[in-house]
Input
Amino acid sequence: MAEFGQLLIEVLGIEKDYPTGAGVFQALRGVSLGIAAGEFVAIMGASGSGKSTFMNLLGCLDRPTRGSYHLHGQDVSRLSSDQLAALRNREIGFVFQGFNLLPKLTALDNVALPLMYAGMGRQARRQQAQATLNRVGLGDRSHHTPLQLSGGQQQRVAIARALATRPRIIFADEPTGNLDSETSRQVMGFFSQLNHEEGITLVLVTHEADIAAYARRRIRFQDGRVVEDVAIEAVAA
Amino acid sequence: MIIASLFETAWHALTTHRMRSFLTMLGMMIGVAAVILMLAIGQGAQAMVRSAIESMGSNLFIVMSGATTTGGARVAMGSAPTLTFADADAIRDLPDIVAAAPVSPGSAQLIYAGLNWSTSVFGSTPDYAIVRDWPMASGGFFSEADVRSGARVAVIGQVVARELFGDEDPIGKIIRIRQAPFEVIGVLAAKGQSLDGRDQDDLVIVPISSAQQKIFSSSLRNRARFIMAQATSEKTMDAAESAINEVLRNRHRIGVGQEDDFIVRNLTAIAETAASTTRVMSLLLGAIAAISLVVGGIGIMNIMLVSVTERTREIGIRMAIGARRRDVLWQFLIEALTLSLIGCAIGLALGIGGAWLVERFAGLPVAVTPASVLMAVGVSFLIGVFFGFYPARRAAGLDPIEALRAQ
Output
């Protein structure tokens, strides 16, 4: 049994309410779970199941209405928005479905952006950004803007941006949603490699079973609750 | 260090929409240029008035011969001199008066060695140089003895010296004033323009007795068209004015209820009024120009609000990867500041250039002072902060999740 502190992520009785015109909508109705360092977790569920809300809470973009969330032993629900921003900057990387790169900036500047908010000097952050781009195999594309890159390349730039500050966790929200199946396989292969070789904790939100199959644990949401939490043995080809 | 990077970010954002940035800055440019130009014109006018006042002489009264009533027909002021040399002496003997000079003005043609020049001729006494605070460039002023004896000596202004003598030294030369020969014994220092725009250096001063006998052939001997008097200080001017009134009413035997046959004017007060008028005009011009600066600032706020709305998703992305609220605030504030300060710089160049053109082609005196430049830069900075703050705060207050969902 995992003790408190060994878990990278520990949520207890988390609830999230959204006020709507017709009253309060309960997006999460009491979720408790833990994720250890180095895990590769797929979060599944239909739209409206609460999986995206849960992701946003885990990613420190939002705070729960009730319940507690400890990230690396720290009670996140009590932090100020500036402290949350610093936490997102240092500990967390985001990869989105729509890539969310800044279209006017080059790949290098996009990857260097989180380093700027980390307070790193211009020269140092450009070096580190270049090194990170090399890692995702786009070292020769650093001066291209997103529009000059293919979808798969854009998503790799986004992954490089998520990796730039060397975070412990990466949250990927439908990262293959805008990609064809071949590119999806490459991106998922790269995620697996990061998890295997560097021990980066990965939390993946998807509704596609074959994408979820890359993970080693599957958590299924329905109506704001966890309805399934199982280990996955088989690795998809 | 983040701030430095944010300037780079701002520059990048502004150069991405060049046309829009330019149009946004246009308001600031026009505002700053207008402020600089208007202040330059206003301060130029003020400087001109100030130097005219300084050249006039300080704490100055002018006592003019007033309307005389001859058999019921009132004659215009100064047309028949009622003031005498003795009046001038009486005024000079007043305790608050430093000097008093009777003046008999006129004009005449001067001739020297084949050159001629028409100019103003003033007949007066040595006190004239005192009341006008008028130093000599060379030579000396004539004396009381010259006035008593009706000596044919003359003191000339810079313009006359230049027009008649060129590079030659005028001292000791004989000029003809309306055919009468006069010896030049002094050249006055330059004074420049008077308040009414006349060149004060275009004149000849001779003893008042000589002027009346040899030049004007006046039938009214020992009378002056006006008397100029200087009070001991600004504080004694009021007392001096009533003393002059009293002594002249006594001397002219004007009873209670009778109309004065003279008029005392406080020239210094009139000059102060002129100065404050130009000051008010200058302020008014600046204030009107400042309105366009405010309009320019509103233009910046408008575009920054549009920009925040357009870039909501970008703001969400920046927040997701670790931008704190104050980083976002600074980003948009710096963008607004960059717009206003670049607009200000271009406006300064336009305003200074415009001021130069006004001086060169319209002939108006202008003065671009460091203070007005500093003020324009300072106001632009404040406008950038003031009108940039609201959009920046709106950007910083966005919810990262909502912002990420924006299209």
